[in-house]
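Table S2 (continued). Query chain:
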Amino acid sequence: MKENFITNLQNNIFEFSKLIIGSDLKDTAIDLSEVCLDSLIENDTIKEIPGLSAVFSVVSFGKNVQNHFEFKKAVAFLQQLQKGTIDSEKLEKRRLAYQGNKKWFKKEVEQVLLYLSRLSSVEKAKIQAELYIDLINEKITFDQFNEHLDILDRLFLQDLSHLSDINFAESKLDPQKDDVVAEIQFNLTRCSRMTALGLLYQLHPLSYGFSKDNYFRVSENGKYWCDIFGCFQNKLIDKDSAYNDQL
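Corresponding output:
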């Protein structure tokens, strides 16, 4: 029993690795992550899309809602990944690692699958793809990738728009005048959550000589997440524009 479990796990990692370096879902016109669960069950045409049969084999596709949700997250991740801008040489490095059964690539895929299973929404699966694109393109290290996956796991997505607003307000400060305080209406609940994740840090009045008791600044990790959020939002806008053009 244990040997069968280990064999199935290894096979799933191997199959998902192949999906990561492939492009079967890149040109899929329909965003499968937006399809209702019952449609995934009933629509045989969707299941015949190239590449999806492999996803079916990786994700336990039973008759319960949770398994279908796991499928949607996996497809959302792969579609977002394959439509991203990835350095061809760095992707080729992973193709060779896949062919050579390299441990470091298997470890990457294990982390991707582990965190995908933990995520609470399809939107988070798409953002995880953006993080993985940055890892492939070597904008972040593997350790940083893991750190950001932990942040994503605990993050309230609605907090990102507030983080972006704070970051924009800070960008308007005049560095020549040693400005510290920007005019921002802080949502203390959201700021407290993001401070706990290391995306913000709090300035104290006694240290900086201003009168506001609750004032926050964006950390380096926070600025990175503003970039991720901006990139993700732009892709959503592009998708909506393309959809509207077809109407």
